[in-house]
Amino acid sequence: MILYHGSNKEIDRIDLSKSRPYKDFGWGFYTTPYKEQALAMAQRTVRLFKSGIPAVTVFFLDDGVLNDPSLRIRKFDRPNTEWVNFVVNNRNMRPQDTNNPECNIDNKYDIVIGPAVDDDIVLQLRLFLRGLISIPDLKKTLKYKELTSQISFHTEAAVCFLTKAEVTHG
């Protein structure tokens, strides 16, 4: 499987300590199977930090890794209540709902796979957190949204399966 990582610089070696907090699936290294999504992230990162040039680093991941029983893998096939709670909990770095306190703050998962949150979805999540819309309303909004996908790596045990293939600049 080919995965892409968009940044404001080429990634020579994955260093999880350089990851930023408050991400969808917790502190980790994020990739996507979509080159266009990675390029958009690279361009956004350059604008945000006002430094570097858009770079998409290409990685190879053996498909069998996602079935490796020694890895703790969490997969969300679509946005649902579990996914919303998981993303909200990770973005706030504390469980928000005592009935569903699941998150990946402690890197209990080596790899997490699921829909990516964009700026429109962030707005909807904020409305939900403020109590202005309900989970069913949030899910209804997401139903008509074209979602992208991400695969995040949260531990050295997971990162070691990624092999750098190339870098493109855009």
Detailed description of the structure:
The longest helix is centred in the N-terminal third of the chain and has 15 residues, at 35-49. The chain has one domain (2-169). The two termini are 22 Å apart. The chain contains 5 helices and 7 strands. With 170 residues, it is an alpha+beta fold. Helix 2 links the parallel strand 4 (73-75) and strand 5 (111-115). It is 30% helix and 21% strand. Strands 2-6-5-4 form a 4-stranded mixed β-sheet. It has helices at 35-49, 81-92, 119-129, 135-143, 156-159; strands spanning 2-7, 29-31, 55-60, 73-75, 111-115, 149-153, 163-169.
Task: Explain briefly what this protein structure is.
This protein is an alpha+beta fold. It is 30% helix and 21% strand. A four-stranded mixed beta sheet has the order 2-6-5-4. A three-stranded antiparallel beta sheet has the order 1-3-7.
- Could you name the ranges where pLDDT drops below 50 across 5 or more consecutive residues? none
Shape: globular
Mean pLDDT: 86
| Quantity of strands, as a count | 7
Task: Note the run of SSEs as H and E.
Answer: EEHEEHEHHEHE
Figure out the total of helices. Answer: 5
- Percent strand: 15-25%
The oligomeric status of these chains comes to single chain
Which strand order spans the largest sheet, edge to edge or round the barrel?
2-6-5-4
How far from one another are the termini?
22 Å
Count of domains: 1
Secondary structural class: alpha+beta
Residues in helix, %: 25-40%
How is the main sheet built? Answer: 4 strands, mixed
Radius of gyration: 16 Å
